[in-house]
Amino acid sequence: MRPEEADPDARWLTLVMHLTFYVLHLTALIRFIQRHPSSVNTTLVIVLAALLAGIYAAGVGRDTYAPTDPSMRRPQALRVVWLAAVVLVWAVLVELAPSFAWVAVPLIYAALRILPPVAACVLVGVLTVFVTIAQLRLAPRFDLDLVVGPAAVAGFATAVFLHMKRLAARQRRLIDDLIRTRRELAATERRAGTLAERQRLSMEIHDTLAQGLSSQQMLLQAAERTWDRDPAKAHGHVRSATKIVEHNLAEARRFVHDLAPADLAVSGGLPQALRTLAGRESDERLRVLVHAEEPGGPELPERVQSTLLRIAQGALANVREHARATTAVLTLTTLDDRAVLDVADDGRGFDPATLPETPQGSRGHGLPAIRARVRQLGGTLAVESAPGEGTVLTATIPLVGGQASD
């Protein structure tokens, strides 16, 4: 694509310059023929005028007025050869017929666009000298205006053109910088989105699949230990493990399709999902109780329900793995402006000051992951515990003015 095809302004300027050339060329030829109808040079002038018009027309399709790419060390050879041929024929024509002097106007713009600034200024000076000499030859006597006028106009036009050319080059650099910055920003956003998605996936896997696999492992180990002395109990452990496998499979399918937790698919919403979770997590080692108030107003947003259920799953996984508790209690309280989930256990407790703010080590999750989930919805997480005194985890999610609405 040629530059003037890409830029409507350049295409318009190209058209104006071509029309200007041919109007000045035709006017000069008519003026010469009217004043010198039978001169010995008339035929030669007509031939040279036709040659100039032909050479100029040959260059019209070669981006005559398109600016040279600033990244190139020198302009294209064909454009330079074309310009040299046009100027040479024009100079001979002006020597024979000074009326053609003003055809230099479009040639000056061609020189400024095709040549580097220094070479263009030199050629503009040469063209101006030819125009000045031609005007003096046509004048009945010496006139200082004919010397100063063309030089002043050519100098002013050249300065303005070079200034605009520098502005255009600066604008191109700014556009290139903007495009490069947008690409870098897009790459940064993609990296940030990838990291956020990786964190989300890791939390989902930890709170669902990993927890289920851990429960299956403990049940199967218990079945193995009791297989010989108490086959009925061992079979019960295997059946419980099978149910967990079925639930994990449902979680995995919904997880792949980015749907809500499987427990929320049943009727009853979050309270029923917490009861289902408690029943699945309860065994001879840990008893899980649920106190859930049915919401009096509108049902909690799906995102809030999903987050609170994941928090409950992660908290119970921590209780089972670290607390050595015998009882855990899930309490759901729904108010007008917030939803509160408390997870309390009677385990060995710990010092909350030792908790990391972000996932660390190979384990990588637990309470830091729960805290990240709460913050995503603009909520708060409080942990009350002490060694030997159990633990109470409280997650509060705002329902008005926060990020919890669907």
From TrEMBL:
Coiled coil: none annotated. The keyword 4Fe-4S applies. The chain crosses the membrane at residues 12-33, 40-60, 80-102, 114-134, 146-164. Keywords: 4Fe-4S, Cytoplasm, Iron, Iron-sulfur, Kinase, Membrane, Metal-binding, Transferase, Transmembrane, Transmembrane helix, Two-component regulatory system. One of its GO terms (molecular function) is kinase activity. Its EC number is 2.7.13.3. InterPro entries: HATPase_C_sf, HATPase_dom, His_kinase_dom, Sensor_HK_TwoCompSys, Sig_transdc_His_kin-like_C, Sig_transdc_His_kin_sub3_dim/P, Sig_transdc_His_kinase_ChrS. It is found in: Cytoplasm. It is an enzyme of class 2 (transferase). Gene3D superfamilies: 1.20.5.1930, Histidine kinase-like ATPase, C-terminal domain. PROSITE patterns: HIS_KIN. It catalyses: ATP + protein L-histidine = ADP + protein N-phospho-L-histidine. Its cofactor is [4Fe-4S] cluster. Member of the two-component regulatory system NreB/NreC involved in the control of dissimilatory nitrate/nitrite reduction in response to oxygen. NreB functions as a direct oxygen sensor histidine kinase which is autophosphorylated, in the absence of oxygen, probably at the conserved histidine residue, and transfers its phosphate group probably to a conserved aspartate residue of NreC. NreB/NreC activates the expression of the nitrate (narGHJI) and nitrite (nir) reductase operons, as well as the putative nitrate transporter gene narT. This is Oxygen sensor histidine kinase NreB. It comes from Streptomyces polyasparticus.
